[in-house]
Every structure is written in C-alpha cells, then in structure tokens.
Specification:
15 helices, ten-stranded mixed sheet, alpha/beta
Length: about 650
C-alpha cells in the first residue's frame, strides 16, 4: 500500500513488518545469535522447600572453574591405565566450534615433572566432548553423522542398532575377584560368567583406545534411582548419538545445578559400540564382549551397538549395590492408586506385565526396574523401554502417544516417503523398541516414588492351562514362585509341534541378577511381612485345556481380577485349596465366571487335566533342583520351608 507524503509529495512504501537490521557483520555472527545459553535438560522433579540445608549448600564455583573440573573428571574417565599420555580433552563439536588452544584443554595423566614422557600421536590430538546434549542437539548429530537415522512422522528418531538387535547374554562377563568371589552367584544356573581382572583391563584398554581415537565422543552424566538417599551417579561414554539419546531417556536426567556439582561418577560405562573385542583374548567367545568390573565400578562394551546392553548392565549393578544397603532391587512394573496403594507386577515376556501395570486409573511409578527400601518403592530409571512389535493406538494408547519428538525408535520399518512406522513389520527384527522419558506417560508419578507395596502380583502365562486365573500365596509360596519365575512359550509355527514349553527365569529376571535368587526371595518375604503386603499368582494364559485345545483367559477377566486385588475385595473372599500346588483359589470374583476360577472345571477331559498338572509340577520340581541345596541364613530351615511350598505329588 502506498501513502503520499504531504510535504514532498513523494510516494513512500508502508513497511508494516519493518525492523532494525541484525547486529551481525558475518554469517557466523548471525548464526551465533540463534542460540542462547540455557539450563541442561533435566527430569521434572519436586523442588526442595526453602529453608533446608539443600543438596548443594556448599559455595558454587564460578563457571570457568566448574568447567575445568568437569573436563578433568572426564579426562580421568578416558585415561589409559598403561600410558602416561593421551588426547587433550575439549568441549564442543569439532565441526561447529573452533579448536581450543592446548592451554584450555585438559590432557590425560598430566604430570608436573614429566618432560621425559614420550610424545605419541594420541597425545598430540584433541578429543571433543559432547557433554549431556539435549535431544534436539542429538537429533542433529544423528541425522548428520549416523547412517540409518531418520525422523519419523510422529517426530521420533528411528535408529539402527547394527548387526545385534538384542542382548548377547553369552558374551557377558563379570570380574571374579576377592570382593565378588563369595558375594556373587556363580556356577550352574547363574547368568554371571567369570573373567579375571587382567582380561577386563585388556578389554577396557581396547575400548578406551578406540574412543580416544575418535574426533568426538558423547558423555552423559546422569542418575539411577529416584530415592535421593540411595541415588547412584553414572557416566556413559559412547561413540554414537543414538546411545547418548537412549541413555538420556532411560536414566534420570540431572538439573543444571546437579550437573554443575556432579563430580566423580559412582560407575562408568565405556561403550565402544561396533568396535570388536580381540577374539584371541582369554574368555572371549565371539567379537562381542560386555564386561562388568564391580571393584573398579566400570563396564566395557565391545562389538555390539544394541543400546539395551547399557540399560541392563546398570540394572545388574543395582542388583549388586542395593542389597548391600538392605534394599531390594526388583525386575517389576509398579503403579499406585489414588489412595496411595502400591502394587508390584512381576512377569516375563508375554505375560501382560506392561499392559496390566499401565492403568489409566492408576499412577505409573515405573514399567521395569524398582527398589524397595525402608522409604518405600522407587523407580531406578528415568524412562521406559517398550516393545513396539504389533503396537496399535487402540491397544496401547499411552505407549503410542509417547512415541514423539525425543523418543528413540530402534530397528523399526517405515514408509520411505511419509516416514510412517509399520509396527507389524519384522524385516529388521521382531525386537523393535521405543525408549522415551517417563514423563511422556500422562499419568506417570513424578517423582517416581511411592509408599510400601500393598500387593505383589506374580504374572504367568500358563499355556498348559492348569494354573488358576488367580490364587493367593503365603510367604513360603511367594518365595517359591518368585524364585521359579515361570511362564510358558508356544511352539506355534513349528510344524507338527503344539506342545507348550515351560520357561523359568529366577526372580523373573535371571539374566540380570548378581546374587543367589534365594537372597532376593528372602528379602522380598521379609519386606512383605514387615509391611503387610499380600502376594498373588495370576495366570494370563490358557483355561479349559492346553494351548491348541483350550482358550486364552480373556483380558477383561484378568483386568477384573487385578481390580479386585487393588480394591482389597479379594482379601475378603472365601477360598478353596487345590491339589498338587496347594494354591488358595477364591470361589468368586466380581465380573469373572465362577466356573473358570478352578482350573479343572473348564476341562472336558478331567484325566487329561490331572496328567497335565502332574507334568507341569514335575517341570517345576526339576527346575528347582539347582536351588535346593542352597542354605539361607545360619541353618536350612528357610530353605526347607520354601521347598515345602512347591508342588507335592
């Protein structure tokens, strides 16, 4: 629109969107104006009330000193155990930041009187530290530098984990030394395969050498355990933005103030990703090795890019550290009702643990890893790691909606044009996953802590069809079934084979426990007795026959059972005791047909039921043989009590 100037008569243009020119002389200066310094990404938490001493009552160092201390700590983490020199550590992306002078950098193993230290190629180079980057920054790094990284239509970041699309339990090793020889569970049935200190050092040196050879590495300083009295500081050093974003989501994210005062970590992970171990090294059985040294408080990952190794490695650490503090570590889901009643959910894959613990009418404390201390329950993690195969908006609304910007999608397949994910596609793997911060779940309880549990629910998908839909357990039975960790797998696609296969996993997470299962079971029973919790065995599997002849117990029936447990109404029911397993079965549950509550009733062939029941009982007994000779406490009375709670036939 033109307007006429009264004085000059010259037409002028009316610039409604006019503004002063930018305060920049070069394009680089203009780009620098885009970004301003802000606080570090953090997990939402309740602020401490004013007037208390606070976690950080000491004087705050100025920013330059803090950064120097931070770099010094990271430099110590990356230091070789054998050489006196190493790369100089500086912060920032090498392609977006000009290299700092050697005076501003920190070298490994700085010696004030070391003029005779030989100069190496390693000591001449800089290594750039990308420290606690935000999800947006990690997106940029991944898209720019890591092939196979794509932003999906929902905003999540799709990544590939390389050749390994799951954990490698046969390649996991734990250092056996004086401090762990008597504490840890070794031998038959144990997930802990031993290695010596020297071999760990060889693998650690290999991983550190690889990380130091890179132009840049990602460093995450984060926490485990929402209980502030028992929080663990962890540092993750990795070569990929994928790994950094994954752990950003899965661990508890520090506030800016906590990060400034982080100091020395309690445990460090060196993730060399695709770089393999040396097959000629003692104890190595493949090019992959996941090694934990509890004395050195370190973990080394070689030859696998699967991010779940870091998550479960830290879970193993907590299974070792927490019981030493008389805190029970648990592989379970956990939720809380609006009246403060807490329930723990144990169950192997396919039992419905995630589905049943994620309840719109209850607060989610966590989906996978927890601690039970004198303060109550607390989530170990800051995020969720959900399976994505066959995921649908209708069945898993909360998980579906959590897959948005910031979420890591592992090994999924998507449309090359629209970037819409096809969760039914197993082209890469059936083990597709989503890792997202727990606050992405709308009803998550922040902070992720709760009072002492009221109910302990052991889930089993019994494909033999002989366990009741629900039964109440006494303490001895709780320990027996907790140690057993039973479910059943379906042969299904194998031609001519329709028999279910019993699967047992001690404490419902045998791959991650460090101590003997009976120690965790005894702690569970002690805490249940101390705080008045009740245990329940819930079968989400088959009824009226085994897989192939019977039918799966309907999910609405199981939900009614879980609701009755939460409300406390099942405690007031009348019970009938079963044969062989000696389980207490309620005679009535609101909303559930009474005829299915006793597992024999729906079977047309009663003799077939009895034969199948004895078959499963025999499998339980055979599995328990490995635990039968382990004495708990000063005498074997508790061991005998647990054995007596098993099937009798």
């Amino acid at each position: 629109m033109a307007t006429e100037n009264v004085d000059t008569g010259v037409n002028e243009i009316c610039h409604d969107d006019s503004a002063a020119p930018v305060k920049a002389q070069t394009i680089d200066e203009l780009h620098s104006l885009q970004k301003k310094k802000t606080s570090a990404p953090n997990t939402p938490r309740i602020k401490q009330q004013a007037g208390g001493d606070g976690l950080f009552s000491s004087a705050i160092l100025d920013q330059e000193d803090r950064q120097k201390q931070q770099l010094k700590s990271i430099s110590a983490s990356l230091a070789s155990l054998t050489r006196e020199t190493g790369p100089k550590v500086v912060k920032g992306d090498p392609l977006t930041k000009k290299p700092e002078s050697p005076k501003a950098a920190v070298s490994h193993h700085q010696h004030p009187t070391a003029p005779t230290v030989p100069v190496t190629d390693s000591s001449l180079k800089f290594i750039h530290i990308l420290y606690n980057l935000s999800p947006a920054e990690l997106y940029e790094q991944a898209i720019r530098y890591e092939k196979g990284s794509f932003i999906t239509s929902s905003g999540a970041l799709a990544m590939l984990s390389g050749a390994k699309t799951g954990r490698s339990p046969r390649d996991k090793r734990v250092v056996k030394d004086k401090s762990t020889e008597d504490d840890l569970w070794w031998g038959k049935g144990s997930p802990n395969i031993e290695m010596d200190e020297h071999t760990f050092t060889v693998n650690r040196e290999r991983a550190v050498d690889y990380l130091n050879s890179l132009e840049k590495v990602y460093v995450n300083d984060q926490f485990l355990n929402w209980d502030p009295e028992n929080q663990i500081k962890v540092r993750i050093v990795s070569a990929r933005a994928y790994h950094s974003l994954f752990m950003h989501n899965m661990c508890i994210r520090p506030t800016a103030e906590e990060l400034e005062n982080f100091g020395t970590p309690d445990f460090t992970i060196y993730n060399a990703g695709q770089f393999p171990c040396n097959r000629y090294t003692h104890y190595m059985t493949s090019s992959t090795s996941i090694d934990i040294n509890l004395s050195r408080k370190e973990m080394v990952i070689l030859g696998t890019q699967y991010a779940g190794e870091m998550k479960k490695g830290l879970f193993g650490l907590m299974h070792y550290l927490m019981p030493k503090r008389q805190i029970l570590s648990l592989h379970s889901g956990c939720n809380m009702g609006k009246d403060g009643d807490v329930a723990l959910f144990f169950g192997l894959s396919g039992t419905g643990k995630t589905t049943l613990s994620t309840d719109q009418n209850r607060y989610l404390i966590g989906d996978d890893e927890h601690c039970w201390s004198d303060n109550g329950v607390s989530n170990i993690e800051g995020g969720c790691y959900a399976k994505c195969i066959d995921l649908s908006r209708e069945k898993e609304t909360e998980i579906w909606n959590a897959i948005k910007f910031g979420t890591v999608l592992e090994n999924v397949v998507f449309d090359e044009h629209t970037r819409e994910v096809d969760y039914t596609d197993k082209s890469v793997t059936e083990n597709t996953r989503a890792a997202y911060p727990i606050e992405y779940i709308p009803n998550a309880k922040i902070p992720c802590v709760g009072p002492h549990p009221k109910n302990v629910i052991l889930l089993s998908c019994d494909a033999f069809g002989v366990l009741p839909p629900v039964s109440k357990l006494n303490l001895a039975q709780t320990m027996y079934h907790f140690i057993s960790g039973y479910t059943a797998l379906i042969a299904g696609t194998v031609e001519g084979v329709k028999e279910p296969t019993a699967t047992f996993s001690a404490c419902f997470g045998a791959a991650f426990i460090m101590l003997h299962p009976t120690k965790y079971a005894a702690m569970l029973a002690e805490k249940m007795q101390q705080h008045g919790a009740t245990a329940w065995l819930v079968n989400t599997g088959w009824s009226g026959g085994s897989y192939g002849s019977g039918s799966r117990i309907k999910l609405p029936y199981t939900r009614k059972i879980i609701d009755a447990i939460h409300s406390g109404s099942l405690l007031n029911a009348s019970y009938t005791k079963t044969e062989v397993f000696g389980l207490e079965i309620p005679n009535e549950v609101e909303g559930v047909p009474s005829e299915i509550l006793h597992p024999m009733n729906p079977w047309a062939d009663k003799q077939a039921y009895k034969d199948t029941l004895l078959k499963l009982a025999g499998l339980f007994r055979k599995n328990f043989d490995v635990f039968a000779n382990y004495s708990i406490g000063k005498d074997s009375s508790l061991t005998e009590e647990i054995l007596a709670a098993g099937p009798i036939f």
